[in-house]
Amino acid sequence: MPRDLTAQTEQRRRRLLELLSDGEFHSGEKLAKRLRLSRAGIWKIISALREMGVEVQSVPRQGYRLPRAIDLYDRAAIADAATPGGKNALERIDVLLTVDSTNRFVADLKEPLAAGRAQLCVAELQNAGRGRRGRTWLAPFGSGVVMTLGWMFDEAPPTFSALSLAVGVAVVNALRKLGASDVMLKWPNDVVWKGRKLAGILVEMRGESAGPAHVIIGIGINLRMPPVVRLSLAEQQAAVVADIHEILRQQTPNRNVIVGAVASELIAMLKTFAKEGFAPFQQRWLELDSLAASAVKVISGTQTTLGLARGVDVDGSLRVDVNGELRKFVSGEVSLRAAK
After folding, report:
1. Would you tell me how many other CB atoms lie within 10 Å of the CB of residue 73?
2. pTM of the model
């Protein structure tokens, strides 16, 4: 399909979603007039959206609607929600209807980034999103925040291995400023609420160890997860999830506000991390550690180690007290050990 025709098709799909985003019924006739299409053309777009995973309800003599109102991503609204420092550092903001992976999209951008500059991408639908250890990140239409921030370091900063932990601190700081005061962290890169997973982080890096480093930070935040998706995630990841709406209810922020706030905190963190590494964020991470002093089991490959969580080192490794001996783990899966 020619590129201009593909762009026109996506534009029409997005425009139809904008008309339906209030969650109210809209007749096929009125939608056709607004988009200057035939009713058959509207039906074709709705069928395509359904195939993409967007639930569009239809009722005879009432029309079409989404199950609930959705705040679609908007480039200008995201920029307005960012801090002045965050907005100034953002070189570009891409708002997509659908993409295989926002991380991959940012990684494949041709335009070179200058050091200290950021690229941001959000997508309504992501069909190949990845979490840690290659797991699939499920985010049905309108149910969460899917965002990726690209950043260029002049060179790999000190304690680069701990960057994902500093990203976690930035995400939690942003969410707490928006009202989610009980949000915590779980090593190495989960954001949790009352022990349940609220958000995930995937950090990738391209570059040489002694030269410029292009960092790609993918973040998925649960906003309003349908029960069937909660069950699927629990079965797939053996973890119970939480979402922002569950925490804040009627005070749940618009998705553009969340993206702008998180991007701003990330950019501020990255500027500091470039110079000082993880050290300025270590104490804050310890304060947010949901497993602090808890009995844990560290599963790494075929080995399982039991002990008490003792926070993280400046290089980002997990410290565990194993029968009085302090051991460090640089990777692995950590979970609470059942109390006896």
Report:
1. 23
2. 0.91
Cα 45 from chain centroid?
28
Q: What is the residue whose two structure tokens read 């029309």?
A: 63
The CA radius of gyration of the chain, in Å to the nearest whole number, is: 21
CATH number, domain with residue 38:
1.10.10.10
Specify whether 299 is located in the same domain as 232. no
Per residue in 224-242, pLDDT tens?
A: 988 877 777 777 665 688 9
Of the candidates 136, 164, 117, the residue with the CA atom closest to the CA atom of residue 285: 164
235-254: b (≥16 Cβ within 10 Å) or e: eebebebbbbebbeeeebbe
282 & 315 share domain: no
| Domain assignment of residue 88, given as a range | 75-287
Burial of 15 (0-12, 13-18, 19+ CB in 10 A): middle
Cis peptide leading into residue 188 (ω within 30°) = yes
Of the residues 65, 90, 107, which one is the last residue of a structural domain?
A: 65
Measured CA to CA, the distance from residue 290 to residue 162 in angstroms comes to 17
Does residue 281 contact residue 169 with C-beta atoms inside 8 Å?
A: yes
Rounded to 5 degrees, φ, ψ at 79 are -60, -40
Per the domain annotation, does 70 fall within a domain?
A: no
Number of separate domains in the chain:
3
Kindly report, residue by residue over 19-49, the tens digit of the pLDDT.
999 999 999 999 999 999 999 999 999 999 9
Residue 188 sits in the same domain as residue 266: yes
Same domain assignment for residues 162 and 210: yes
Residues forming the active site: 132, 197, 337
Distance CA 19, CA 45 (A): 13
Question: Which secondary structure element, helix H or strand E, spans residue 151, and what is its range?
Answer: strand 144-153
